[in-house]
Structure prediction request, 380 residues.
Amino acid sequence: MKFGLHFLLSCAPDQSAALRVRDTIEQAVYGERLGFESVWPVEQHFLSEISVMPAPMLLLAAIAERTRTMRLGTGVVQLPLNHPLRVAEEVATLDVLSGGRAELGVGRGADAVHFNGFGVPLTESRDRLVEGLRLLEAALGGEPFSFDGVFHPVDRPLSIAPRPVQRALPIRIAANSRETAELAGRLGHPVLLAAHINPLEQLRQIVPAYLTALSDAGHEPGPDAITLLLPVHVAETERAVVRDTRPMLSLYQQLLTYKINGGLAAAPPNLPEAEKARYRAILAAIDALTLEEMRASRAVFGTPDECAQRLGKIADELSVGRFICWFNLGGRRTHSQVVAAMELFATEVIPRVPDPAAAPATVSATVSATVSATVSATVV
Prediction:
């Protein structure tokens, strides 16, 4: 079982963006010493309260210089907002700088504020993701390529330089919907799931859809085919857990409400009503979320024993090979508080996480039963 670190870098008006970035680098460096094997900063734009990290590969390059073994993943690059060839060049450069430690996490993105800012129609996001993935595969394949694309055609053969150190640089797709999970499966890529976006009951539907599509396309799941990002907090007593996480949840609800309302206000008139309804449903669910519900379905908050048992159960049920831990939900935990939680998690939780009943690459009994009853995915 692998454990990584997630960084959103929310920055309130009374916080310093420069300090948030420096603290993040220090936390990542210390995380490697504690045994966390990877780090995953986001790509967000234009809303400092949400994040002050528009360029995750720049941050990862800084972390690369101060680490030796830590995997360096983007969590995630919003592919429709970026030219895929530029993304390929940058991740290849990061791979060279780090001695072969880069991982490319990509996603569709869905925030109208981002798309409007870059002049990209939000309604093209899925088509741009699909085309961008195929162009990325060609660019990182190691051979000269041309590409017949709608958004980014390559008429004459090109080769990116430098080439990555890794022969097959991992491309991981953020799958926040069944459709994207099935796309990732058909293309044979591992997925990044997020429990704070899709609670466990929804992930129990997304994972079988992904594994079915993967199998139908003739691909075998690797040991970390499924990576799960989730908010994490560990404390010595139940009282301390509640004391710490109640304000974290409240701040997270405020931030997400601000982000989704802003996105809906900026959404284009031709955005399908079903898409708008999906975000309104997310907003309503988050607004009504209690701490008890958060702990049950979207996060791992608890004492060391409780966290270890929960993680083992989730890994077994959803075939998770890697957890990415978000220790600063809400963005207001101090550097020392985040580091203390990381230390307690590394020393008291990770060693106690039980081995899943099945290896991560093997579908657990629950998921297997669902997969066998699932009709093969329809190509979108």
